[in-house]
Design a protein that fits this description.
single chain; alpha/beta; FAD/NAD(P)-binding domain; D-Amino Acid Oxidase, Chain A, domain 2; five-stranded parallel beta sheet; 35% helix; binds flavin-adenine dinucleotide; transmembrane helix
């Protein structure tokens, strides 16, 4: 017979949100199990740079005792940012001033850092949750793909945009935003791809106009992560373009340096439709279960907040559980109520901002519109 801790806290999803929750609770001696459907931490390319904000992502890492380890992994120069128009003219540029206000880290590195803080066995890989069911007494039955059943005293859905746990609380489903990305990478760019390397610069580059554009990020190891983005009614169209080589034609007339982000790609383009839950997604509180991160509020990446919010949600939920006491159902209920009351309005504000930014960025003159947003943020 398997034994497990009391109470049995089951977190579904070993993304940044689920792992942050586990890391903060573990630091305070509260064990959890984290279930993830992936076969292991590196089963999928995690890709991408994230800038962690002081009040959210960084605060969560402090709560997990990982701030120093994080600082050691930050990409120097990564805070640089520029906005271009389709002709390649720079409309707005910010250098990395080295104040470390929004340090950039590779998503995979960040996830590894959180995993390393957890005792072996906390995360169970290849543990896809198939169904979840309320037992009526505040506990939930979680059935895994392999048929195994767990009964959770507290069930946390940190299982991302297409969350299974969410169905216990809400009927909402993410809707297609009208914008689809196709992702690729360019490697050893200083030697092999000097033109794309120069147009992207040291950090993040947006080139936008005519309802389309490029978003590209320089990563450690002289790699560029590139997203070509289009406003398309049907995301299947992006999948066809990405597979069939039709992407370049959508950028006819764009500066050759920008087009080189497609022609010099080292990897096949992978399509990714951008989805979002309704702004302000909320639910009636139910005992024994809650959500955090994308499961609660997936939004387009145009506020740069999704990962930061997931980590902040997790750190706040952990703090509330520690404050009210995980040992009793009443303590856990108060913690869930506090967490949801803080998370819902915070996420709604970011989701509204990201939806507005998406509309501006993929409007007729996205470059100038984004420049104005940046200029208003940075005075
Ligand atoms: C292109 C792009 C760029 C982005 N850029 C930024 C950025 O610059 N800054 C920023 O802050 N945010 C950014 N985001 C948003 C950010 O990636 C997400 O908000 C963040 O990863 C959410 O974390 P999470 O832990 O809630 O969910 P996820 O990272 O999605 O993790 C969910 C986990 O749950 C697991 N899972 C799912 N279903 C099941 C199941 N049934 N059973 C078991 N496990 C399951 C998955 O395998 C996964 O590991 C970006 C997003 C995109 C798409």
């Amino acid at each position: 017979m398997t034994t497990h801790p009391q109470p049995w806290i089951v977190v579904v999803g070993a993304g940044l949100g689920g792992l942050t929750l586990a890391a903060v609770l573990h630091r305070h001696g509260v064990p959890v199990v984290v279930l993830d459907r992936d076969d292991g931490p590196h089963a999928r390319v995690q890709g991408g740079m994230l800038d962690l904000h002081e009040e959210s992502g960084q605060a969560a890492l402090r709560a997990a005792g990982l701030e120093e380890a994080f600082r050691a992994q930050v990409l120097p120069g990564g805070e640089a940012m520029r906005v271009l128009d389709p002709a390649g003219c720079v409309l707005h540029a910010e250098e990395d001033d080295g104040d470390g206000d929004r340090p950039e880290i590779q998503r995979e590195t960040l996830r590894d850092l959180l995993l390393a803080a957890l005792p072996r066995g906390t995360v169970r890989w290849a543990a896809a949750v198939r169904t979840v069911r309320a037992l009526g007494d505040g506990r939930h039955e979680v059935v895994l793909g392999a048929g195994e059943t767990l009964v959770a005293d507290l069930l946390v859905g940190a299982d991302g945009a297409w969350s299974r746990v969410r169905a216990l609380l809400s009927d909402a489903e993410p809707a297609y935003s009208g914008v689809a990305f196709a992702a690729t990478r360019l490697r050893e760019v200083d030697v092999r791809h000097p033109v794309p390397a120069a147009v992207v610069g040291a950090g993040l580059m947006f080139a936008l106009g005519d309802h389309r554009g490029f978003i590209a990020h320089r990563e450690p190891g002289a790699t560029l992560e590139v997203y070509a983005a289009l406003r398309v009614d049907d995301p299947a169209e992006m999948a066809r373009l990405a597979a069939g080589g039709g992407l370049l034609a959508r950028f006819d007339g764009w500066a050759p340096a920008l087009r080189s982000l497609i022609t010099e790609a080292d990897e096949p383009f992978v399509p990714r439709a951008i989805h979002a839950l309704p702004v302000g997604h909320a639910w009636e509180h139910r005992p024994g279960v809650t959500l955090l991160g994308d499961a609660a509020h997936v939004m387009s990446p145009f506020a740069g907040e999704g990962a930061n919010l997931a980590m902040q949600d997790a750190a706040d939920l952990a703090a509330a559980l520690l404050a009210h006491g995980v040992g009793t159902a009443a303590g856990r209920e108060r913690a869930i109520a506090d967490h949801e009351a803080a998370m819902v309005p915070r996420a709604a504000a970011a989701a509204a901002e990201s939806a507005a930014n998406l509309d501006l960025a993929f409007g007729p003159d996205g470059g100038h519109a984004l420049r104005d947003v940046m200029a208003s943020h940075h005075g």
